[in-house]
Amino acid sequence: MAIHIGKGENECQLHIDGRFTFETYREFLSAVDGRSPHCKHLTIDLTRTDYLDSSALGLLIQMRQRLSNPERNVLRVKKGSVAEEVLTITNFAQMFQIEVT
């Protein structure tokens, strides 16, 4: 997992490569909590995530609760990916803006 600051001062991106599971919860929440205070928009990039479990879904919900503007945050997924399928089945589009690339 790597966190990258986006093009603007107010935008951050958190890229999750590989498996997004319970084992990554500390690193994930640390990255969310450790982002720049100027970061107003957070994009979680799941385009290189090849597996996510129910713990990962719970972490996304926890992240949303920790953020001051949860409606301004995006989940980015690759078209036809496991992440897109799981987020569609679980109806996460009601809680997050989902971008399909």
Whole-number average pLDDT? Answer: 85
* Terminal CA distance: 20 Å
Strand content: 25-35%
Approximately how much helix is present in the residues? 25-40%
How many DSSP E strands? 7
Uncertain segments: none
Radius of gyration: 12 Å
General form: globular
Q: How many structural units, i.e. domains?
A: 1
At CATH level 2, the architecture is 2-Layer Sandwich
Can you walk through the features of this model?
The protein is an alpha/beta fold and 101 residues long. The protein has a single domain, classed as STAS domain (Transcription Regulator spoIIAA, 2-Layer Sandwich). Helix content is 30%, strand content 29%. It is built from three helices and seven strands. It has helices at residues 25-33, 54-66, 82-89; strands spanning 2-5, 11-15, 18-20, 41-45, 49-52, 74-77, 97-100. A hairpin with a 5-residue loop joins β1 and β2. The longest helix is centred in the middle third of the chain and has 13 residues, at 54-66. The protein is globular, with a radius of gyration of 12 Å.
